[in-house]
Amino acid sequence: MNIGFIGLGIMGSPMAANLLKAGFAVTGYDVSAERVRRLAELGGKGASGVVDAVAGADVVVTMLPDSPQVEEVAPLVVEYGKPNLLYVDMSTIKPETSREVARKAAAVGVRAVDAPVSGGERGAVDGTLSIMVGGAPEDVEAARPVLERLGTTIVHVGPAGAGQTVKAANQLVVGGIYGLVSEAIVLLEASGVDPAAGLDVLAGGLAGSRILDLKRHTMVKREFAPGFRIDLHHKDMGIALAAARAAGVSLPLTGQVAQLVAAARAQGHGSLDHSALLKVIERLNAA
Ligand code: NAD
Asked: Where are the transmembrane segments (predicted)?
């Protein structure tokens, strides 16, 4: 099976590498020539543009930053894809953009599913992502052999766009946990308690979470190399609040977390990992 892979960043690059390891032929494209070159070094084929990556592909995967990039790339995928192409967008974008992509794809016989992921760079590298898939049941089943090489939890959550709504829910929970872990660290340190020891106990109890497992040590050491950039989480909080508005519901904690993420960005931390929410909570408490 030939796979066209577009967007070879922090997530896309290891995901494409896993597809290569699984024996798929992968043709990759990214606006960064350096990232295309790295895929070629791993045994993939470098493409000169989106159209080149799509030509001859049975499946196209996109892993792009945000809705505008998908809105730019998806029409080319749909136009230049071969008949019956399966298009799997794994970027985190607005649900309505995914619905629009699926609608336009269906009009020309391209099968499109939205399949955003959770699990971070570690999950992408290890092939253990959680993947929430929206689309027609038969298209989701067709995508499964590819998705199973990228993740271990793959759930069909509803029609086109539903994957993105689940991802929005995921992001508000993740943001909330980072905010509260940050507050726990600030409380422990201000009280003269070793935060590393304190968080070790939390990790083993009811407050335990994947975030505490993976990030408590780096947070305590103030190591904030991304990972998942604050800029991207800011985008995701916007998606979550817009989804809440569209659904007519009030999510007060999500609103607060969105403001903390906005503050991190305003303080110049947009390129840091989202665990850098700690810097915002620290600054709130600085003398
Ligand atoms: P990234 O910025 O590292 O990667 C995006 C890549 O897309 C970059 O290499 C960029 O050059 C490329 N790109 C941008 N516009 C393009 C275009 N028009 N054509 C081709 N390539 C283009 O971002 P990432 O961290 O890999 O995240 C990608 C998506 O996955 C985002 O939607 C993000 O929200 C989501 N996500 C990220 C993580 C994470 O931990 N990093 C986890 C889950 C989901």
From this structure: none
Q: Which structural domain, as residue segments, surrounds residue 93?
A: 2-159
Are residues 11 and 149 located together in one domain of the fold?
yes
pLDDT, one tens digit per residue, over 138-178 is 999 999 999 999 999 999 999 999 999 999 999 999 999 99
Residue 100 CB less than 6 A away from ligand 1:
no
Hey, which of 10, 121, 133 would you mutate to test ligand 1's pocket, going by the most ligand atoms within 8 Å of its Cβ?
Answer: 10
How far is it, in rounded angstroms, from Cα 276 to Cα 273? 6
Domain boundary among 122, 144, 159: 159
Which contacts (CB < 8 Å, 24+ apart) does range 218-221 have? 218/273, 218/275, 219/181, 219/182, 219/185, 219/275, 219/278, 220/185, 220/195, 220/196
Catalytic residue, candidates 21, 45, 82, 167: 167
- What is this structure's pTM? 0.96
